[in-house]
Amino acid sequence: MAVCFCCSAFLCLCTAGGEVQSRKKIDALDVGRLCVSQVWPAVEWDKQETGTAKVSEKKERKEKNKAAEVDNSKPQVIIYHTHSSESYQPYSESNFHREEETGTVREVGNVMAAELNKMGIAVVHDRTVHDRPSYNQSYDRSLSTVTALLRQYPTAEIVIDLHRDAAAYTGNKGETIVINGETVAKYKLVIGQGNDNYRQLLSFAGAVNAAAEGLYPGFGGRILEKEYRYNEYIADQYLLLEVGNNQNDIEHAKNTGKYFAHVLASVLEDE
To answer: CA-based angle 265:112:142, to the nearest 5?
Structure first.
């Protein structure tokens, strides 16, 4: 049977008159590759390393197994949302705030958590809605949530309060960058100057931006310093992360979640 496959592969290289095409010199390796591709079409040959095969199915299976092995009961990263209902285009109802998860910062958090898991990094993503029914009490309610999470998960090294910005502060337009051919919303990091650990927070934000620039030049976000505390005093490696604004599309914000996960992975590797 193998001979039949090889024969058919060789015949594919021949002209109708039975002469081998002269466009490219054919050697035994080329014929071998054609034979194998007839039996295992999933095999992709690496043109840079002669004779080396990359099996895409095996790679995908390895990634799935890696994610399955992650023990999220011992997370390195905690993600939660003080303003959980903040939404993106095209979900504009209630001045870009919606209780449903689709189109909101919670969906961005889902993408970030999934990407971290793919890289073998354990994460807990809390999707509790804190800005309903009272927006003014959001930080009080989210403080209760995150302190409980830190007690429950003492292994956490990084805490992220994931928000989005308001377009009114950025010229009423969405800010984006292109990474690997994908449109990605820009991000900002907000530092509360009223925190006793202000210096540690600022240093950590700088390390995150350095990692972002190292991986994806131009991706590093602005660091905004404000006089409030934003509950950031609870951990030195704390990020108040604003992904895009309400003029950014949700798909662009989700792309930010994916690439920012790789930034976090880089930071964790350097520790």
So the answer is: 105
Question: What is the C-alpha separation between 231 and 228, in angstroms, rounded?
Answer: 9
Give dist(CA 170, CA 167) in Å, integer. 5
Give me the residue label for tokens 């960058």: 177
CB atoms inside a 10 Å sphere around CB 194: 13
Residue with tokens 């950590």: 204
CA 76 vs CA 55, 79, 116, 173, 245: distances in Å: 31, 10, 10, 34, 27
Peptide bond into 154 cis (omega under 30): no
For residue 180, the one-letter residue type is N
**pTM of the predicted structure, to 2 decimals:** 0.76
Query: Beta partners for 89?
Result: 249
Identity of residue 255 = N
Six token digits for residue 117: 């898991």
pLDDT for 7 equals 41
